[in-house]
From TrEMBL:
InterPro entries from the UniProt entry: DAP_epimerase_DapF
The protein, known as: Diaminopimelate epimerase
Family (UniProt): Belongs to the diaminopimelate epimerase family.
Pathway listed: Amino-acid biosynthesis; L-lysine biosynthesis via DAP pathway; DL-2,6-diaminopimelate from LL-2,6-diaminopimelate: step 1/1
Predominant cellular place of this UniProt entry's protein: cytoplasm
């Protein structure tokens, strides 16, 4: 039996189990154990699990697992929560530089619970008659709808995620409704295989597709089931975007000990 000291964080309802692994003390964790820890009935309960790892060249390294136990692509809300946790652990000076599976990231703290996370540049957006498809650290299918609250996100999202094109690698699926000067986004996440309260890379993808044609800086307010986020970016070409920032809350829910076999 192994003892784990964990922290539970959430960013607009997207929730994560986090462990300080800078000394490698949790390197023994298996995919099955990650899945058990994320289980909402028999474990701690979370959309994913992250390890704060040591890095020679950065303030820290981010290792992210989906709730199915598999190491996954970039998670935007996860990156914001891990930055807030690293700050709590005394890492950095409020400006954090870290490495994740999709490359380098920068994060800044605005108070104790608000994190601005710089995302990777986007240099291609596929636009079909009824959808957009792009990669913001994770792959995202974006579909605009008239009434986002009426969408059956689980059924419709699953149908797209497992269709002939995406079944092998999977994709996240976002349903988007414009409102006032922003958007409301609901997301089906691969690896969780269900709707989550929020998805950082999905919100980022949706905000980019919402931008006008003009090459300038954009600020897009985003509503999710779990709360409000903001995406800032610059359109630099017909299908290219840079200086992309995902901004929003990242909050410690609780910490504790758990024993795992």
């Amino acid at each position: 039996m192994q003892q784990i000291h964990f922290y539970k964080y959430q960013g607009t309802g997207n929730d994560f189990v986090i462990m300080d692994n800078r000394e490698g003390q949790y390197d023994w964790l298996t995919n099955e154990q990650v899945n058990e820890l994320c289980d909402r009935r028999f474990g701690i309960g979370a959309d994913g699990l992250m390890l704060l790892n040591k890095s020679e060249d950065y303030d820290f390294a981010m290792k992210y697992y989906n709730s199915d136990g598999r190491e996954s692509s970039m998670c935007g809300n996860g990156g914001r929560c891990l930055a807030a946790f690293a700050h709590k652990m005394g890492v950095g000076d409020g400006n954090l530089y870290f490495i994740a599976v999709d490359g380098e990231h920068e994060a800044t703290m605005d108070g104790a619970n608000w994190v601005n996370l710089k995302m990777q540049d986007v240099d291609f957006v596929e636009q079909g008659p009824l959808h957009y498809y792009l990669n913001t650290g994770s792959p995202h299918f974006v579909k605009y709808v008239e009434d986002v609250q009426a969408v059956n996100v689980f059924d419709e999202g699953r149908q797209i995620r497992y269709n002939e094109r995406f079944a092998a690698e999977g994709t996240n699926v976002n349903f988007v409704q414009p409102f006032e000067n922003g958007i409301f986004v609901r997301t089906y996440e691969r690896g969780v295989e269900d709707e989550t309260y929020s998805c950082g890379t999905g919100v980022t993808a949706a905000a980019i597709t919402f931008a006008g044609k003009e090459e300038k800086e954009y600020v897009v307010p985003v509503q999710t089931l779990g709360g409000q986020l903001e995406v800032r970016f610059t359109r630099t070409g017909e299908r290219s975007f840079s200086n992309i920032w995902l901004c929003g809350p990242a909050t410690l829910v609780f910490e504790g000990q758990i024993t795992i076999g």
